[in-house]
Specification:
By secondary structure, this protein is an alpha+beta fold. Helices cover 45% and strands 22% of the residues.
Length: 497
């Protein structure tokens, strides 16, 4: 390009930028002059509440407190999107374009913030965080996204209203925030993005009003509202609410006269119901009512509406179970079995969950277990004695979803998902390295394999073993056998969870 043409291009670009900046300034002045009905009391306070993401963390906490799986997942996705957007804005955005803040002269004093921000103006971090959180929530749950979107829009608008940003700062921040949410979705696919194979359909009685369904509900799960909702959806179903220590007896009684056995509680309660259902040849109806609800969510039953629809139409699938046999007896699991540090974490969580709740207790338990001074577990695996921090066995393959631990997409694949974290002097580093590297890679820290049968020998007496959230002690030999398509479970067939 000749020097004259190059100069012309640069001049044209400079003139276009000047026109855009002039338009931006005139829009800012127009916004300052425009009377926003009812906004003087709301927008400045809303703008301040969004400082450091406080508003969005509080919103996420409120969503998680509702205890529906979709709301909790949407809250996590929203916070992940917000975190990525904030990191991008603060490390790249603010340092790349050092634009001065608007002059406050046109802005009425009543609108101005008491503390003016001192960072550069472009792009708006508040708008980025608002858009990231709202978009992340909406990608997981459109209903929750619709509820959050007006608040996010108001926060973004408040930055122009209070005079701390030009309109283009807000638009650029919002675009970056939405982009961060879509990037998080690429790294952590939403539940709707995960394609689930067609599971083996099963014959199960259709119970339009729930007649013949007996549901045993664990009172300790705190799911009374969900049980009442199921009772309204299936008015002829029989609901038996009982204390945790009575669940086994009530399940056994119900199985003698039910056409279908229902259960509401956490994974441990569901495990007990599955054993009874298998013994009596009954289809199982699972209403999630615990903290984690791994089995119900992986199955695709998120709430009472899903379950009621499946029961009404007799829609069911067959899923695998796993039988484990030890020197002292045998048991069954639907989700996972673990040896090593995880059983200790389950015990710690159980000690604190009734005081501070399931999720905080899980975090506290993890910190206590990883900080404790201990030696690795030693057992014989594949004919070789090995030191291990963790042996994990999943009923079905647990898929990785980007940066987050995944779920199972097929509960009838006939496989055991076996993962091992090797022993060393630093369990925390080993476990974190294994989590970051992915489930099906091999490294000095961990290994993974998929089989349909597993035999462990040389287990020391009293070794804790965790299965579906319960803990028992084992010794000697432990054998695990897959039971393909052993259990019939109600599940709506016309939706992808």
């Amino acid at each position: 390009m000749s020097p004259d043409l190059d100069l012309t291009a640069r001049t044209t670009g400079h003139n276009a930028l000047c026109r855009l900046l002039d338009l931006d300034g005139r829009l800012f002045e127009a916004a300052a002059a425009w009377r926003w009905p009812g906004a003087e009391r709301v927008l400045p306070r809303l703008s301040r509440s969004a400082n450091h993401g406080v508003l969005w963390f509080a919103t996420a906490a409120a969503m998680a407190a509702i205890r529906t799986p979709r709301a909790r997942t949407a809250a996590v996705r929203g916070l992940a999107s917000l975190s990525l957007a904030s990191l991008t804005i603060n490390t790249i955005g603010k340092r790349s374009v050092r634009r001065a803040r608007p002059v406050l002269d046109p802005v009425p004093l009543v609108r101005q913030l008491k503390r003016q921000p001192i960072t550069t103006s472009f792009p708006s971090g508040h708008a980025a965080s608002a858009a990231a959180f709202a978009t992340g929530v909406a990608l997981e749950s459109p209903a929750w996204g619709a509820a959050v979107a007006p608040v996010a829009f108001s926060v973004a608008a408040s930055r122009v209203y209070t005079g701390v940003h030009f309109p283009s700062d807000v638009l650029a921040g919002a675009a970056l925030g939405a982009g961060a949410a879509f990037l998080v979705r690429r790294l952590m696919p939403t539940r709707a993005q995960v394609r689930r194979p067609a599971r083996p359909r099963a014959e199960a009685p259709a119970l339009p009003e729930g007649d013949g369904l007996i549901v045993v509900a664990n009172r300790a799960s705190g799911s009374a509202d969900r049980v009442r909702a199921l009772e309204n959806a299936l008015p002829r179903a029989e609901i038996v609410e009982c204390a945790p220590e009575e669940v086994g007896d009530e399940l056994a009684k119900a199985a003698t006269r039910a056409r279908a056995l229902g259960v509401c509680g956490g994974d441990g309660t569901v495990n007990a119901a599955a054993r009874v259902a298998l013994r009596h040849g009954l289809p199982l109806a699972v209403l999630p009512g615990g903290t984690l609800n791994h089995f119900a969510l992986d199955l695709g039953v998120e709430d009472e509406r899903d379950l009621a629809r499946a029961v009404r139409h007799g829609e069911a699938v067959r899923v695998d179970a796993v039988r484990y046999v030890t020197d002292s007896g045998e048991g069954l699991f639907l989700n996972t079995l673990s040896l090593g540090v995880y059983p200790e974490l389950v015990r710690e969580r159980g000690r604190w969950s009734h005081r501070i709740g399931g999720w905080p207790a899980g975090l506290l338990g993890a910190l206590r277990v990883l900080r404790a001074d201990r030696h690795p577990l030693e057992l014989e695996l594949g004919g070789e004695r090995r030191p291990l921090w963790l042996l994990f066995v999943g009923n079905g393959v647990y898929h990785r979803m980007g940066l987050a631990p995944g779920r199972r997409t097929d509960l009838a694949d006939g496989l055991l998902d076996v993962r091992v974290v090797h022993g060393s002097r630093r369990p925390a580093l080993r476990l974190l390295a294994a989590a970051a590297a992915g489930p099906l890679t091999r490294s000095p820290a961990h290994a993974a394999v998929q089989v349909n049968r597993l035999r462990l020998t040389g287990v020391a007496p009293g070794t804790p073993l965790a299965y579906d959230g319960e803990v028992t002690a084992v010794s000697g030999e432990v054998t695990l056998d897959k039971l393909p398509e052993a259990l019939t479970v109600y599940r709506p067939l016309d939706r992808t969870p």
